[in-house]
Specification:
By secondary structure, this protein is of the alpha/beta class. It has a domain of 188 residues: Rossmann fold (3-Layer(aba) Sandwich), CATH 3.40.50. It has 9 helices and 7 strands. The chain has a 7-stranded mixed beta sheet with strand order 3-2-1-4-5-7-6, sandwiched between helices. The radius of gyration is 19 Å and the shape is globular. The two termini are 36 Å apart.
């Protein structure tokens, strides 16, 4: 049996999620070699989480190879759970954390396989941008967290991969829809009766690559190659010609340090309000 599943017969939204799951499953064994930025963002989230005296259960949504949940398991006692949409990622997480009592579950951030009001601390780092709806994830977090429980997550906002988005537009001859949530929309989603917002930090991080090909390979190594896909590409250049045109367009963005890859990172710390009700 394989971790990569066929998505031909699924509805469009499910097909998209299955492509994402397949991409991350295929990248699992090499993911950590290209995930320096992901590790740095997770470390920053860890440093910003509140110092909690008692955590009987915690969960990492989109846990990947288990970097964040493993560190939280060391920090807190109780039950630790890693949830990811990609079975291949969980297989690698189990392998890397075989000596830790962590429970691993396949599941979507928008349909969490967890009981209502069962978790004290929920985290997610650079995963929920893959959701069809961030609001769907937040609704699930409200359902699963106990009253007074904490949610800490990072996600990518508008401005992420601007260089790639512009290169794709130049290559395909069409304006692509933005892949990432705007900062205004994020703020509006966080302003509701279910949550007490403790912290919202927005930072821009950049990595650099020697060549455009290296920049594209870096996305593929972390399972994010779907960001280079385009439904419009089928109408224009295909295959090698499109790749050559894309790399030429990326070259125009070169900086002294190399070809930049930009990430606009939001770090959010929330507490589930007393007036919240699980649904």
């Amino acid at each position: 049996m394989t971790d990569v599943q066929c998505s031909e017969c699924l509805p469009s939204a499910q097909r998209r999620q299955q492509r994402i799951a397949n991409g991350f499953s295929m990248a699992a064994t090499r993911y950590d070699t290209g995930a320096e930025l992901q590790g740095a963002v997770a470390d920053d989230l860890l440093a910003r989480l509140p110092a909690l005296e008692r955590v009987s259960s915690l969960v990492d949504i989109g846990c990947g190879t288990g970097y964040l949940v493993s560190r939280l398991a060391e920090r807190h006692g109780g039950l630790s759970i890693g949830v990811d949409i990609a079975p291949g990622m969980l297989h690698e997480a189990r392998r890397q954390s075989a000596d830790r009592p962590i429970r691993w579950l396949v599941g979507s951030a928008e349909q969490l396989p967890l009981a209502a009001e069962s978790v004290d601390l929920m985290v997610s780092s650079l995963a929920v941008q893959w959701c069809d709806s961030l609001a769907g994830f937040l609704n699930q977090a409200v359902r699963v967290l106990r009253t007074g429980g904490w949610l800490g997550f990072t996600t990518l906002c508008e401005g992420t991969l601007d260089e790639l988005q512009a290169a794709r537009q130049q290559t395909d001859g069409v304006r692509h829809a933005n892949t990432f949530i705007s900062e205004t929309e994020l703020i509006e989603l966080l302003d509701g009766p279910d949550w007490r917002l403790q912290e919202l930090t927005l930072t821009t991080r950049k990595t650099h690559h020697a060549t455009p090909q290296d920049a594209l390979r870096a996305l593929k190594r972390i399972g994010a190659a779907t960001l280079t896909d385009s439904a419009h590409a089928r109408r224009g250049l295909t295959g090698r010609r499109r790749l050559d045109a894309l790399t030429q367009a990326l070259e125009t963005w070169r900086e002294p340090a190399g070809i930049p890859t930009r990430y606009r990172v939001a770090t959010v710390i929330l507490q589930r309000a007393e007036s919240s009700h699980a649904s």
